[in-house]
């Protein structure tokens, strides 16, 4: 099959003075073709019928569209692999904490505490926040998370759920023991948990579900050193080379008052206000100053970084709804684009020296 320009194989254009610009063949005018078109001829030089020419043209166009679409899909696939993806199902904001459809009562049975969820009855069970898991295996235990020059960040869990130890919901000690009653897997059993996240993560072509049991996560049983520091020794600081230019208030709360900290708020969101992570520190009055750095007595607990009641959406103090994953208390959408930085921004809430603003840059969050 040949593609031949108009004018070949005996078809000619006569001079304008002779025919007025008409196309002729053997001196007889013929219908002009569209500019820049081609006559499609078969292997023997015969013109292919018009309907077949049209079908051939459509086939060529369809092939071109298909090739372009495949190329686009390939580029999108490569960009997803390069960026890393977190996949979430369309679901209730409780996400995994909807507990297979049982909802709120799976953690907060309205009557009788842990026994209402098939757990072991215990003294004072369910007295705090109607908590429906057995806390007794964890009473009085000491756990060490993270690692530092002193060996880690130690936290001793309450010895009971009676009286003022812990004092109740919002108490950092209660947060620790309540979360570990499901998310330990070592001292406390896993209950209804399967031990991996509902959301999947894809990195470099590999898709997996992250471990959700701190004491049984594939390393040594009862190893909490590979978990982020938490507990009364996991304090935050202002000033110095590794912290934000912030200040502590009398009640243990934090104000982002310096120019770099204020710039970070403008580029991300106000992490000190509303439902922000620094507004969910366990606030303790008092601080220690050393070498230009002020370390607060306020400390990090589980619910500082995680909102156990919302897996997918975070709302800032100004009312802006932001995407999140893994119950993270902030704008946290890793892999939403190849240049996404919201996950890094969340970590910079405390680790100010790793921020763009600490390096004199203003980079909007994406």
What features would you describe in this structure?
This protein has a three-stranded antiparallel β-sheet with strand order 2-3-4, with no helix packed on it. It has helices spanning 16-19, 50-83, 172-183, 259-267, 302-305, 342-347; strands at residues 2-5, 12-13, 23-25, 28-30, 38-41, 85-87, 142-145, 153-156, 196-203, 206-211, 235-239, 247-248, 254-255, 287-290, 293-299, 313-315, 321-323. Strand 16 (313-315) and strand 17 form a beta hairpin. The two termini are 52 Å apart. It folds into three domains: 2-77, no CATH class; 88-231, no CATH class; 234-366, no CATH class. The longest helix has 34 residues, at 50-83. The chain is globular. The protein is of the alpha+beta class and 366 residues long.
Unreliable runs, pLDDT <50, ≥5 residues?
A: 1-25, 30-45, 50-63, 68-83
Query: Percent range for helical residues?
Result: 10-25%
Structural class call reads: alpha+beta
Main beta sheet strand tally, sense and closure: 3 strands, antiparallel
Rg from Cα: 33 Å
- Quickly count the helices: 6
């Amino acid at each position: 099959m040949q593609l031949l320009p108009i004018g070949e194989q005996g078809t000619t254009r006569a001079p304008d003075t002779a025919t007025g610009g008409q196309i002729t063949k053997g001196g007889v005018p013929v219908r002009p073709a569209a500019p820049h078109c081609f006559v499609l001829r078969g292997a023997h030089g015969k013109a292919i019928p018009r309907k077949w020419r049209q079908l051939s043209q459509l086939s060529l166009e369809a092939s071109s569209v298909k090739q372009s679409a495949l190329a686009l899909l390939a580029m999108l696939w490569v960009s997803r692999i390069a960026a890393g993806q977190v996949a979430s199902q369309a679901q209730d904001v409780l996400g995994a904490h909807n507990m297979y459809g049982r909802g709120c009562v799976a953690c907060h049975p309205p009557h009788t505490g842990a026994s209402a969820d098939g757990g072991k009855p215990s003294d004072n069970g369910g007295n705090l926040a109607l908590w429906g898991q057995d806390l007794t295996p964890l009473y009085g235990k000491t756990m060490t998370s993270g690692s530092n020059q002193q060996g880690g960040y130690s936290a001793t869990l309450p010895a009971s759920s009676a009286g003022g130890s812990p004092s109740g919901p919002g108490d950092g000690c209660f947060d620790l023991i309540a979360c570990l009653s499901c998310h330990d897997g070592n001292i406390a059993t896993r209950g209804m948990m399967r031990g991996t996240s509902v959301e999947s993560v894809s990195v470099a072509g590999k898709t997996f579900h992250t471990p959700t049991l701190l004491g049984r996560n594939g390393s040594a049983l009862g190893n909490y050193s590979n978990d982020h520091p938490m507990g009364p020794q996991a304090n935050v600081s202002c000033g110095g080379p590794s912290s934000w230019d912030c200040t502590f208030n009398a009640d243990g709360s934090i104000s982002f008052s310096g120019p770099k900290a204020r710039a970070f708020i403008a580029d991300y969101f106000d992490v000190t206000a509303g439902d922000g992570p620094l507004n969910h520190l366990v606030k303790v009055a008092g601080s220690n100053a050393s070498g230009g750095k002020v370390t607060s007595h306020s400390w990090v607990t589980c619910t500082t970084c995680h909102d156990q009641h919302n897996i997918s959406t975070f709302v800032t103090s100004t009312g802006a709804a932001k995407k999140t994953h893994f119950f993270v208390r902030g704008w946290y959408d890793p892999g939403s684009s190849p240049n996404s930085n919201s996950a890094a921004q969340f970590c910079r809430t405390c680790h100010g020296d790793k921020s763009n603003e600490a390096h004199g840059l203003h980079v909007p969050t994406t």
